[in-house]
Amino acid sequence: MQSNRLGWILLAPTLVILFFFGVVPFFYVLWLSFHQWNPFALDPAVVYNGADNFRALVFDNGFLASLGVTIAFVFFAVLTELIVGYLLAQAFMKEFPGKAVFRTIHTLPLIMAPIIVGSIWKLMTTPSIGIIPSLLASWFGFDLNIGTSAVAAFTVTVIMDVWHWTPLVTLTLIAALVSLPADPFEQAQIDGANKRQIFWHITLPMIAPALLATVFIRLMDALRTVDEVLMLTGGGPGSATRYLGVHIFKEVFPKTNYGYGSAVSIIVLYLTIVACWLLYVALIAPRNKKA
Amino acid sequence: MTRTEPQDVETPINLYEEQEEGRQSPFDRKARDGFLPIQTNWFDRVFISVIIWVALSLFWLRFMEPAGLPLTISNVVAVLVGVYIVWKG
To answer: Which residues form the ABC transmembrane type-1 domain (chain A) (predicted)?
Structure first.
């Protein structure tokens, strides 16, 4: 009983912070999503409008388009990060000259603020002054212009996200790979298993929890990407890179449509929770049940 | 003479497991198998009901309400489905 009380006392500061910075804002946004509110209008009153914001949302072509490009962005970015991150983690498990320097350099994007990452990539991809269009033009005769080509803009935002966040995946997977016991691998080698069999039947199942945690983190982050993309493309050309975060930003700040922005935010949160839950149910829950 | 099953014997290991079980949250202890494909506790089932309620409401707003069916029907259906999931899921 005493240890219970001590546990609650130790948890109390976290719970209080979580309540004021997590629970209260959530319920405030939820409450706001059922209201119309423009604080800068002539009449800044908060007016209850039932489900009108959600009613508008399901017919909003801008929102539906941004939902589509966000799903594509999340899929390509997170999948690429996982593959590249795993390959890099495997590379870092081996000894090679300059490993420490390379590992430090490879981690640098992770410590950069997203707005800086967006600025750097903006400078690198601007057609007249950027190094990437210049090199692509001189090497392959390819004209990269993220201001006019929707595919190019989308691809560059994915590459930028991969560049920024792959180190996180690499670091978590290195931690998972280092903690693996050597015995199963030695036994598999003795039994004559090849590298592919060892990967599918030993490495992957053993690092699955770490992999899944990384996917959750990246999925949640990618679904709320705003600043990098806003800095690089501003959501354009057209709505090619107007991801949900950018869509919410443009609804809430330039249009000061707080109620509708709150409704979109709630739906993004809903989609994030559902995506993570489905992943958990598909990958972890059956294993627990079997155990 | 009947053979005693190993799990019937109160060994220190079994006692330890019981203590561990006692430390589990009430949510974990009441996990069960229902018609849902995964083992769930009551919180999981409420969560699944809310997820279905939101999805059904959005579907209704987009496709059914323009045909003249009010959102109230969707809410009633969602509550009934929710109760069934919490009860039998």
So the answer is: 63-279
